[in-house]
Structure formats: structure tokens, C-alpha cells
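Worked example (supplementary).
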Amino acid sequence: MHPKDFFASSRVLIVAGKGGVGKTVTAAAMATAASRTGRSVLLVEVAGRSASAPMFGTDAQGYEQHTAVHEAEGRGSVELRSITPDQALVEWLSGHGFNRLVSRMAKSGLLEVVATATPGIKDLLVLGRIKALEQEGVADLIIVDAPAAGHALGFLRSPAGVRDTARTGTIHRQAVEALEMISDPSRCQVILATIPEETPINELIETSYAIEDEAGVKLGPVVVNGILPDIADLAVPEAHDPTSELHDLQTAAAFRLGRQQLQASQLERLAAELPLAQLRMPQLFGTQITPHELDTLATTLLAEIDRLPEPR
Amino acid sequence: MNSYADLLARSKVVICCGTGGVGKTTTSAATAVAAARAGRRAVVVTIDPAKRLADALGLDALDNSPTVIDGPWDGTLAALMLDTKSTFDEVVRRHATDDKQAERILSNRFYRNISGTLSGTQDYMAVEKLAELYDSDEWDVVIVDTPPTRDALAFLEAPKLLARLLDNPIYKIVTASNRGVLRAANKAAQTVLRQLARVVGANVVDEAVAFFQAFEGMEEGFRSRAMATLELMSDDRTAFVLVASPRGDTLLEARYFLERIRNADLDVAAVVINRMLPSVSTSAERAAQLLNEAEGATNRAAAQALADLTAASTDDHARVDELREVAPDALMVRVPLLADDVHDLDGLADIADRLTSTA
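After joint prediction of all chains, the assembly is encoded as:
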């Protein structure tokens, strides 16, 4: 599939996955790759502190939007911004006639009552902000670095949950609109990230079915991070002196062979149990992510997308 | 504290904190195994909904009360899986003045939202369960696997959660109006409630008001319980164990956690770093040189493996050392990256060995 078509197939990509599987890196690499196909990208983080700004080599962003990659010949820009659940709730209430009361309410704990009375309201309002940004056309593509852990499912289920809890009122309409967005594949797709290890793969499979069944969201390809390239002709050398370099070579070869086997069996299991295309991303050895690594990852991502079959 | 075995010997409560995906559940369970092997009566509270731990412990499932697991140890090992809703129900029954009040609350929709989905409820109930087990005197040590939140400190804030909810003006106004006093405040309250109803729907507001009315008379019990659990958190014999992995982002979270817990005047007794790559004495530079000089396909392959490993592991070890600066007094325990996930008691015992063999 041509990467240009891939990044034009939805206006919102939500990247989700449990902690430690490289979800934030995936979102940042996706944003970089999309910008290289000429799309302008808005990368949205929904957690409080910014994790992706340092990857782009820019300062940590606040709530305000800022540019991480400038537009250039054949290349779209990447803008970063964060939307936190608490801010989304305050903003939304103040936009609905609660202006004078909002700050006092926030202090007094009333906001917590509203949030408790309507479970999922904060998540819904984050999605609501994203939907508004999508409708305003602030960028060709919005990529969302979704909340981590089991929270991703709750995040995606929030519109349906709120729609059923708050059966009337403004919030009900908001829920219906957000639901329309996430359940329309031409507007929104979810990309799940994982690593080729047993527990992350198990959780990915469970989450995938839950997301499709319970949230009614279309899943895009799965991103498998941390793939070790297979070293050809690798065998474990004999070594008897535990202080020798040969012994270190033995340790390294045995370790690598074990990891390669584990990875191959996990990838095979993932393919057998989950009928979604896989985008395989390399393990980065001992480096903090910088714009250079991000660019390398984006190159791999574009090649992997190119390998995908054309959609029917 | 000289060793993990020491830490286990002197603690009555061990709280395992950390972000998701670092092996926290496994570390908690292995810690309990280590305690049981040291002859203590140990119970581990897990919050992991996956059946993995139950499987590893050789059980079909875990429930909300301790199940004793037989094995080759002098002490006792038991495990339970926190059921947030039933624990909350038990708390309500305990604090209610009579059965009628309990039923009124348990059937209220706002309550069901709190007990099921309010963020922090799981943390709060984990603390509640911890206190319940601690108070029972049936256990020498209670080990808690905390919920995976981005902010690991949410667990410490948990006892304040309900107290905060009870301090909010709706609660005060609703209960005051019930007693027929503060009419002016009542009028203001009606205005606020009407506005709220316009936004979130009248049914939601009605349920909330009904909940707060039903709750009247129970708040003192809740509040004093919250204070008692907070004290337990800062007890000398409560140990915080931070679980992390050497990957960049989780170490960043670990560092943030250590700083925050220090600001809260609490100490982290140990930092367990899982998933450490094997350490070798060959330097990254030397490995690169070996790769350069290697002749023949198999030699080159092994040299490549060593070069990759040293590049990654040098960095991991350096970053773990940096973490030590933030927690100079904490015990650092490194557990190697294992080939397989833990599937049985032998696997847990193996990790227990690795935890306690660290001096």
C-alpha cells in the first residue's frame, strides 16, 4: 500500500498500547512518516507531561501547540500539543455557561462529582476536543498518543458509556458525536503497538478483540516494536575460561539466539491469532530517541507500510 | 537495609509501585514467595486482571479473599486478586448504620459509578484491602501490587479520595438541606444543580443527590479509616519497593516517582530493576573492534551479537547507576531479562532467589 494512501485513509490515528511497548515512539515515528508523505500532522498527547517533544529535539510543550517539524519541500509540518482530561473538562464546562462557576467548582471538588457522576466524561471530552480539531481541519492528519495501560480501552469506550449514562443534556450530544467519529473508519483508526514478547502479545490480542467488539472502532495494522534483526550464521562458540573475551562472545551469542527464537515464535503466534497486518520496527540499541532515530524509524515505517497489501 | 532478605524480615507491609509493563505483578508474587521461604506468613494482593499470576501459582483463579498456596516453604503463602467493587461493597456495609442504609447506597447508580469506574477507586480499594489484611493479624507481611497508573503516587493519594468527595459543596448542601437548615445555601445549590442537569442530564444529578443523601452519617467512619491507612503508609515497617526496567521511558518514570515520594517524606526501601541485559566485561569499543577484525561468517556473527549486546547493556547499566543518585539509600536489585515469562511456582521461586541473593 502506498504510504501516501495509508496516511490519507483516516483523519485521526489513535496509537494505543500498554506501558513499555514504545507507544509514544510509535506515535512520533508515525507523525514523522506521515509528514514525509506531505501531510501536515498534529501529534496530540493526552498525558500530562510531554514525552515526545525531546524526541523531536524541541522543548517540552505545554497546553499550547508548537511546531516540532517545519513544513518544507514535499514535507508537511508536525505540530505538537497536549490535551489533558482535567483541562478538557474545565474548558468544556466553561464553554457551556459555567464560566463564573468553573474555577470555584474546580477548587471545591465539584468537578470530581461531575466526573464521578458521569464515568468516562474526561476521556470523552478529550475525544471531543480531538473531534473538534478534526472538524476544524487544523491538520491533514491528527495522531493521538493515547493513554497507556488498560486505560486505552476505557478511553475508546467512553463515548458509548457516557451516551448511556447521561441520557439527556449537552454531554449526551457530545458523546453521540464522538462515537460517530471513532466508529467511522474514514475518520478514525486505532493503531496498537506491542513488542514481540509473551505478555504484551497476549494483552494485545485481548485488547484488539475488545476494542473491535466493545468500542466498534476499526483497527489499523499492528506496530511491533523492538524487533531484533536475525544475525545469519549465529552459533554459540565454545568457551571454558569465564574471564576471556571468548566467554563474552559466548554469552552474547547464546543470549541473542534465545531472543531471536522467542521473537520468532511470538510473531508467529501473533499472526496466527490476530488477523491484522504487522508493521515491524527495529530494536534501537542503547540510545535515547533523537530526531535522527525518529527519522530512521520513519523510514522503516514507510517501507513497512509500502509492503502492506492494497486495501480491498 | 543490607539485602532484600533483610527488608522482607523487618517489614509488615511491602508496597510494589511502578508503571505498567515492568514486571510488577511478578516481582510482587516472587517477593511473597521469598517471604514464605523465610518462614513468614505472607499474603500478596494483586490487581492484575490477567489470569497469568493465578496460572503461575497453580490456581484456576484468584478471588477477593486469600487463597493459601502449598509449596516447599516453612511459612505460608497466600494470594488474592483485588475485586474493587466487592471490596467497596464490604466497606459500605461495614460503615453503614443499618442494612437499609447499605442497600440504599449499594443500589444507587452514582455509587455503582464510583465503585466501578472512578479513577483512583482501584487504588483506594487496594489500600483498603491492605489495611484489612494488616488488621487481621493473620499475616506477618502483606505485599501489594499497585495498579498500573502513570502516576505511581496515585496509590498514596487514594485514602484521601473519598474524604475529598465528601468535602465537596454538593455533599454539604444536600445533607444540610435534608436537615432543613441553611436555606440560602440550599437555594444556591438548587441553581448549581439545575445548571449541572442541563449539561450532564437530570438523571445523573438526581442519582448523585440521592447518593449523598443516603451517605449521611457514614462520613466519619470513612474519614477516620482514611487517616488510619495514611498512617500505615508512613509506618517504619512499611516498605516501598519501586519496580522498573532499564528502558529509557520507564527509568524516567522511576526517577520522577523517587523524587515525588521523597517530597512526600517517605522512603523507597528498594528499587528492583527487571529485564537487565546480561553484563559482560568487554567494552562496547572493544566489541566494535572485535567485529571489525572478525573473520569467517560464524565469528562475525558472534562478534555482531556481542557488539549489539555491549552497546545496549552499557547504556542500561549507566542509566541504572544514574537512578541511584536519586535514591542513594535504597537497595538496588537487578533482575536479568529472562528468556520466558513466569509460568509456574518454579519460575517464581527462581525470581525469589534472584531478589534475595542480591547483597
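Two points are worth noting when inspecting this output. The mean pLDDT of chain B is 84. The radius of gyration of chain B is 25 Å.
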